Amino acid sequence: ESAAEEPRVLCIIQDTTNSKTVNERVTLNLPASTPLRQLFEDVASKVGYVNGSFDLLWGNADNGTDTTPIDQNSDKTILDAGFEPGKKNFLHLTDKNGEQPHVMQEESGTADDGAQERFIGPLPREGSIGCTNDYVSQSYSYSSVLSKSETGYVGLVNQAMTCYLNSLLQTLFMTPEFRNALYKWEFEESEEDPERSIPYQLQRLFVLLQTSKKRAI
């Protein structure tokens, strides 16, 4: 009962370690009692860095002048450390001691995951200026280092309070009549933009839910 009533803290992390990730955001929705030590572990898992190889600084306007890294080894809760429930708590992920964060090595059995990851998102049309990397975040590992569950099912990463949408998507995917009807649908690129086509994007998502080797996408 106390866990259900516990306030949640939304953390939005900006990876400022290189130009490719500076415009991207990673979100975590954590219980207010989460220790700072656990915050670092969750961030490391989310972005695919080795825990202890990066620092976290305040990114909120109120704390913008504080350039002291958050204490990674503290047992203090994020609530006691100044994080505010019900608000967006912005953090900057930075180099530690002038060194780039160490990227977590994936297991050898996940060699095909890179190709699978590149399939996510709309593909550019011929003649377009963009490339696939415009749509795919190379820094987000989400759960790339975690292998698929023994059940054979693949989850969806919560993009900050999207559990209701994830539940709906999984329900639709687990409805064979709907899933098969969607697979039979054909996209007409000349008539619609793939980026804005809901059935096209849903079709791609279902393919990943069915074929990905990861625990969550």
Question: What report would you give on this structure?
Answer:
This protein has helices at residues 2-5, 36-47, 113-118, 163-173, 176-184, 198-211; strands at residues 8-15, 25-31, 54-58, 88-95. It is an alpha+beta fold and 217 residues long. Among the domains are: 8-95, Roll (Ubiquitin-like (UB roll)); 162-211, no CATH class. Strands 2-1-4-3 form a four-stranded mixed beta sheet, with helices on one face. The longest helix has 14 residues, at 198-211. The two termini are 30 Å apart. This is UBP47 hydrolase. Residues 154-217 form the USP domain. Keywords: Hydrolase.
Largest sheet: 4 strands, mixed
* CATH fold group of one domain: Ubiquitin-like (UB roll)
Order of strands, widest sheet: 2-1-4-3
Instruction: Please work out how many helical segments DSSP would assign.
Output: 6
Q: Given this structure, which CATH class of one domain is correct?
A: Alpha Beta
